[in-house]
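Here is the promised in-class demo. Please do not try to memorize the tokens; focus on the logic of going from shape to residues.
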């Protein structure tokens, strides 16, 4: 049986149809990855990395509230900075120098700004680990105290039926709640 399955696998993997389909899948993946960044201009990319300074809390190019006093001016400044030929980092630094770090939609990488990326993830992981640790300790403590507690058997702590009366009551509840 094993030799037959191995023979079929080798015959399938060595055939021209298999290799043609493999090449098609690889080309599809390469084209998909290559097109992920296509279609976004530098203006569009930088405009979505900046926030409007009117305190609306929206991305600069998507600020849509009526009568915004800042978005049109900032968009013109962005176009002007792109026209000067500065790099993306220089343009972002220019906006930070003029409006403060609050103008960035996401903190820049490097220095103290790394904390804005690392701290939320670390807090989530520590809280999750702490929760699992506390539940594990509670369960271990309850199981170790079970023999010392009068009137409580290990069956109750292990979620098993304590007596036949409870089992009968559960069966009656199941019967009465069926459709």
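The designed amino acids, position by position:
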């Amino acid at each position: 049986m094993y030799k037959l399955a191995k023979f079929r696998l080798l015959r399938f993997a060595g055939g021209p149809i298999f290799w043609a389909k493999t090449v098609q899948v690889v080309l599809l993946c390469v084209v998909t990855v290559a097109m992920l960044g296509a279609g976004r201009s530098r203006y569009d990319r930088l405009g979505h990395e900046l926030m409007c300074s009117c305190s609306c809390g929206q991305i600069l190019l998507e600020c849509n509230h009526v009568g915004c006093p800042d978005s049109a001016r900032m968009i013109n400044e962005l176009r002007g900075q792109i026209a000067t030929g500065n790099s993306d980092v220089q343009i972002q630094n220019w906006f930070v120098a003029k409006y403060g770090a609050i103008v960035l939609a996401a903190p820049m990488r490097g220095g103290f700004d790394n904390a804005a990326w690392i701290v939320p993830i670390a807090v989530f992981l520590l809280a999750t680990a702490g929760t699992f640790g506390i539940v594990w300790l509670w369960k271990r403590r309850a199981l170790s105290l079970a023999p010392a507690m009068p009137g409580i058997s290990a069956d109750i702590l292990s979620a098993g039926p304590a007596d036949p009366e409870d089992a009968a009551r559960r069966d009656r509840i199941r019967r009465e709640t069926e459709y």
